[in-house]
Structure formats: structure tokens, C-alpha cells
Amino acid sequence: MDYRQTEFGFLLQMFKGEEIFSNLVQFAKDQNLQSGHISGIGAVKDITVGYFDTEKKGYPKNQFKATHELLSCKGNFSLNDGEPFPHCHIVFCDTEQRAFGGHLFSATVAVTAEFYIVTDNQKVVREFNDEIGLALWDLDKK
Predict the structure, then answer these.
(1) CB of 16 within 8 A of CB of 107?
(2) What is the domain class of 2-138 according to CATH?
């Protein structure tokens, strides 16, 4: 992984074989990110995505082993239990341009992945919501 700081955040490049989610977590820790926006493209494989089942309050997951084009990775950074937490959704396509997507749990870079991270000096904290079953933004906490 390599990066360059910009006026508004960071340009972040990941290389073949690197795992995206864990690298985003480590990058956020290294840079002490409190909040920000994530946007990325590239090529990925060994993808695990899910969707939130509101009745079961959990994430059924699907795995995709083959290489796919990463059409879009969108998300944000916040703090969950005091630790940087990237919350990302991705859309990716296969060789026939069929698109798939969901909440990102893991993906390995197949060729390259390029991210633009816009940061903010505002602290955004997540608190667990029992009714929903997720840690949601608590914008009243600072």
C-alpha cells in the first residue's frame, strides 16, 4: 500500500494481493482518522459481501472467488468502540459485465485498487442501536 496526502485527504493505492478492508482499518489507525469519505475503483477477487437482514439483525454473506472489476467502493470512516471503522459498500462486475454488490467484509486486490479518501476533523462515533441491531452514527456525541 502506498499513499500521498492531499489538501483534502489522501490518495491511497493498494497492490495485488493486499486485502482491502484490513488495509483501510490499518490506514485509518495509522493516520488517526476520526471521519471521512472513501471512494475507490480497481480489480478484486476473493470478495465477501453481505446485506443487512432487518428481521435477523445480521449479515448473510456471499463469496465471489474469481477476479472482478471493482466499479465502485463507497463508504465512510467513523469510530466504533474507539477504533477507526470503515463502512463500505461495493459494486463489482464479472467478465460479462453482470454487476453484484453489497456491504464489504473483505476483498483482495487482483491488479490494483485506487482510493480517494476525503478526511474531516470532526469526530464521528457509532453507538449500538438495540432496535436496529447495528452500530449507527451518534451525531450528538463529540
Answers:
(1) no
(2) alpha beta
Evaluate if pTM is beyond 0.90. yes
CA distances from 139 to 57, 87, 125, 126, 133 (A): 22, 16, 7, 8, 18
Three-state DSSP class for residue 21: helix
Helices and strands in the chain: count of H runs, count of E runs: 1, 9
DSSP summary character for residue 7: S
Residue 111 grid cell? 491488479
Instruction: Give the model confidence (pLDDT) of 18-73 as tens digits.
Output: 999 999 999 999 999 999 999 999 999 999 999 999 999 999 999 999 999 999 99
